[in-house]
Design brief:
By secondary structure, the chain is an alpha/beta fold. Helices cover 46% and strands 11% of the residues. The protein is built from ten helices and six strands, in the order βαααααβαβααβαββα.
């Protein structure tokens, strides 16, 4: 039986719409905190800041896996608690603010040919959304980067985990996206992302066509995790691949 005509497409953010040079955001946070603490005469080594931030990332990863929200402010507070000295207000407030907002100064390139893919889908009358698991850079800043790349204009709706309150593959974040896109039939929807555990498993559980984008990160097979319905390595091929799949 021929699948229904494509009505909506959702995209993951990291390594699907936008990528990061590995360690860039970590380095920005370490540099910013080191500068502030040195300016204030607080005796904390760079190594201590690095260790505290790495511990916070491990906490985020465990929370992400368990679907427990762990936002940027939570991460900053944990890093402060791991430092070998107590930092008082107002320096504490400044450190938390910098931790949360430093991503604005990062250089985050859009993935190759993604603007072409978005334009082709939009021109075809397909509604477009985002389903993103947010780490330590909040969704307000992620949208700033899309605006800088002039990509935000293509999206009809977005579902970021720090706003919805759950991570993929929880069906609630997919339901949020579908509702915001006008309740398209899941069978007439596709989701593009790079991770099997979150993007692919979550989409397939909803009856959404799962597309794994491998152009930045080619997620390796893992026991118990599904492969996508389609795998695309170049966004230049995405729209044509999706539309051809619907005609097959």
């Amino acid at each position: 039986m021929t699948p229904p005509a494509l009505q909506a497409v959702t995209f993951d953010f990291w390594n699907t719409l936008v990528s990061e040079t590995p360690g860039q955001l970590r380095g920005l946070r370490i540099d910013a905190w080191g500068h502030i603490l040195e300016r204030e005469g607080v005796p904390v080594t760079r190594e201590a800041i690095e260790a505290a931030i790495d511990d916070s990332w491990r906490t985020f990863d465990a929370s992400w896996q368990a679907n427990h929200q762990y936002r940027a402010g939570d991460a900053a507070a944990l890093v402060l608690s791991k430092l070998p000295v107590r930092v008082e207000h107002p320096v504490r407030d400044e450190l938390i603010d910098v931790f949360v907002t430093v991503g604005s100064s990062a250089v985050l390139p859009c993935t190759p040919n993604v603007e072409r893919a978005l334009a082709e889908l939009s021109d075809a009358g397909i509604r477009i959304g985002i389903i993103c698991d947010v780490g330590m850079t909040p969704s307000t800043i992620l949208r700033e980067h899309l605006e800088k790349h002039e990509l935000l204009r293509f999206f009809d709706h977005w579902s970021f985990s720090d706003e919805v309150g759950v991570y993929k593959p929880d069906r609630r974040i997919f339901d949020h996206a579908l509702a915001g896109l006008g309740d398209p039939d899941p069978a007439a929807t596709a989701h593009i992302g790079d991770l099997r555990r979150t993007d692919i498993a979550g989409a397939k559980a909803m009856g959404i066509t799962a597309v794994r984008y491998s152009g930045v990160w080619d997620d390796p097979p893992a026991e118990g995790l599904p492969e996508a319905d389609l795998v695309v390595a170049d966004h230049a091929e995405l729209a044509a691949t999706l539309l051809a799949h619907r005609r097959s």
